[in-house]
Please model this.
Amino acid sequence: MEKPTKRILSGVQPSGDLHLGNYLGAIKNFVSLQKEYECFFCVVDLHAITVWQDPKVLANKTREVTAAFIASGIDPKKNNIFVQSQVPQHAQLGWLFNCVARMGWLNRMTQFKDKAGKNSENVSVGLFSYPTLMAADILIYLATHVPVGDDQKQHLELTRDIAQKFNNDFKTDFFPIPEPLILGEATRVMSLRDGSKKMSKSDPSDYSRIMLTDTAENITQKIKKAKTDPEPLPQDKTGLEKRPEAENLISIFASLQDTSIESVIKDYAGKEFSTFKKDLADLSVSKLEPITSEMNKLMSDVSYIDSILNQGKENAIAVAEPVLQKTKEIIGFLS
Ligand code: TYM
Model:
């Protein structure tokens, strides 16, 4: 079997409205990487159902993530965009990896601890074994690179451990050890209400995040209300220490404008946050509004989105099935 040298797999959950963290930490990077890599972009609905999802809205959320990929600039003709549950090889390899990963490894996952909180006896088994399925998503394509936000780093280390252990146990070099690609100035976008918390779909406050479905008015309002400290913008990067809210807004600006944090600070050194926020709101609207309106347009033609996903499914299965067969052969299953 021919091994790829530059193949990307990444996934986004259809578990709620996409926010600026998803865009800057992941999707925006997918757009630039598509030129250089063969790409598989997956809407990970099997991961979404590790917590409750309303069956009446799940299908549309799945299409919405697809629309966001395309509206952001991913070319659906050149890349494979597909739905995880439509490619059964993911779940099959996920089971095999459940038998490779160790309980101790999964017990150390901070995302599980955060999500389960004090409720760990009552969350789904799927939430616990979530990272083994993620490893399967990546390795079923023998992907070499995985662009993600900073919060997925630990899951990718686990993926590498699983690939390594499988290879060692079965004395093979079949699975690649994939590299994370954590790129840009906004790898961890924080809540607009609290600079110590990640921007996330599950935050109860709508004002904590900017959604890709927000109107220009919403965006401006949310940035205006974003928490800051009373100091003006610093003279250099060291002046951002212990100022998480300031640091967050400046890195969002840098990422949206495709420039560095240093260069934003240079432009705004000593200025008040009220001035900076006005420019940040204008910049956000100018970058996000075209995406939102394209998403809305795409969402009005469900059959087009479904045709993209259908083609993506076929392409994905054509790559995934031989990898699953080879894995089963290595394990010693009857063919
Ligand atoms: P999900 O759906 O939570 O997030 C999708 C992508 O967005 C990134 N992200 C962020 N980046 C910066 N700042 C934030 N506040 C922020 N919030 C989210 C995430 O890092 C991610 O890249 N487990 C994955 C989905 C997944 C996956 C995979 C990813 C399943 N299988 C295989 C890569 C490869 C997740 O929860 O994504």
